[in-house]
Amino acid sequence: MVYVLDATAIRSGMTIAGEGWYTTQDIVDEVKLGRQARNLDMLLGVSIKVMSPDEASVNIIKETASKTHDIESLSRTDIGVLALAYELQATIISDDYAVQNIARILKIPIKTDLKGIREIIHWTFRCRGCGRYFEKEPVDCPICGSEIRKVKKK
Asked: How many H helices and E strands in the chain?
């Protein structure tokens, strides 16, 4: 089986044996301090391969995340992990809920130490003042001028 590791998986100190373990350079750069950095250096030489996803996979992730409005919650690193897993048809090891949400939509298998998400969430935007809904997030409500917040679609 092929796995793509995010920073949480590496920081948790999980032992990795065998083949088929991948991550991105952004994850390697993120996990660079402390004991985990030393463990990562050893694992990079033994079992974890560092790869960059292709642009087509990145675009699929961005398009999907834009449709669900998860794009604001995903970092460049998260998008890279999702894109690499999509490209390699791999299982993602991550505890990040936004990553799990997009993975479920794209049918990318997920492995996590937590319970994981129970449902796919699509987001919309709602005015705190007048309660109107918007598909795109305006700076302030064009109707009443109140703050807009991200809410789960019903």
From this structure: 6, 8
